[in-house]
Amino acid sequence: PGDPLLERIIPPGTGPREKRTFSSVWQAAHMMKALAYLGYSRDDPLVEKGAAYIFNNQNKTGSWSPGKDAYGDNPGAELQPIYTAVILQSLALAGYGMTTEALLGYSWLTAFRLTDGAWPAGVVEGNYRGIAGYRRLPHSQFGCRTTTTAAAAALAYHPEMCHGEEVKKAL
Q1: Could you tell me the pTM of the whole model?
Q2: Structure confidence at residue 70 (pLDDT)
Q3: Which one, of 144, 59, 163, lies nearest residue 105 by Cα?
Q4: Does an H or E element contain 127, and which?
Q5: Start-to-end C-alpha separation, the chain
Q6: Which of 102, 108, 58 is closest to 81 using CA atoms?
């Protein structure tokens, strides 16, 4: 028998992509973050299983995205850094920030940063996504407050990147 909490998020027998919905990856990441806040670490089998599930659903670029199976036709879904940032927060808090997979995700996230230090909401068909007024950063033409906050938190939780220029400039 599996763990009932984890099975509510990750149904038994589901593998990468074909049988998952993005919400299950998103929920697994949030579950890992909650467990990390409660003191669980990567040594716990529940956290270990959640991390494996998340890594199995990582894109080849290093990012995570909702994809078409979660929200229908979602052009440019992979180019929305908030998804990767929030998942990296969970992985770093649970002790997986230095893994090869997480570092690939951090590499993707930092490469997506704008020259002014902010992160955009995303890119669709080569253009930056529109930003609602309350999410617009005053110093940035395309920077999104929500995405930049999520990216800064992901970097702040990382054991080494927390002191880097990317997080300082984002703040």
Answers
A1: 0.82
A2: 45
A3: 59
A4: strand 127-128
A5: 45
A6: 108
